[in-house]
Structure formats: structure tokens, C-alpha cells
Amino acid sequence: MKVEDITLAAALKILEADDTMLVDVRTEAEWQEVGVIDMPHKVILLSLLLGQDRELNLNFLSDLQQLGLPLSTKLIFLCKSGGRSAHAANMAAGLGYECYNVADGYDAMIAARSSCHIRLGGDPGI
User: Is the pLDDT of residue 74 over 50?
Assistant: First the structure.
């Protein structure tokens, strides 16, 4: 399946559907430093890179599969600026999911936080 790059506005619109989840692939440190989207029932925190060395999470796909999401679930992938999330979305699309990449990343959400549900800093529930 082909991954579609979308804007922040498009991602928020798609997230209104019941069968859609957002996968935040930033690191734990990024979640702690700049926060997470305050939509706990719609957001999955699953790092593509791990630790201070930012090593590739070799269990990323198996961790995603262990969530038990049906293949009919649309997945929107998000990172800081759109690069890691594009990689993660392509990996998940290989499993058969319909995937989207927020091309402008979390940076766009920070810039537009007045119109988004964003919880900055604090405990992202990890």
C-alpha cells in the first residue's frame, strides 16, 4: 500500500473517524520535553528510535502488531518533522494498514497548538 503525506489539518480531520489512530513515533525524551497530543483514546506512543543513541527499534513492527489493531484501522504517523514517521508509515503499510504521514510533523502542531488538542510537557502517560 502507498503511504500518503498529509498536512496537520488533514490528519486532525481523518482522526475524527472511529477506525483511525495516530501513532506518535518520536522518542520518549521528545514526549517528555515537548508533550504529546491530548487525545489518549486515539494516540499510540510507539518510538521508532530508542535510547540516547537513537537506535532503530527492531521490534517496532512486532510491537505495533501486538496492539491487535485490525488491518481496517487507518494509521496516521507523526514525528518531529515528518521523516521518521514516513519511514514508520511505510513499514506499517507493508503489513497491510492504510497509512498516512503527517509531513509537517509535530513541529506544525506546536506552531498551531491554539487550534489543536496538545498537552505540552508533563507526564505523557509513558
Answer: yes
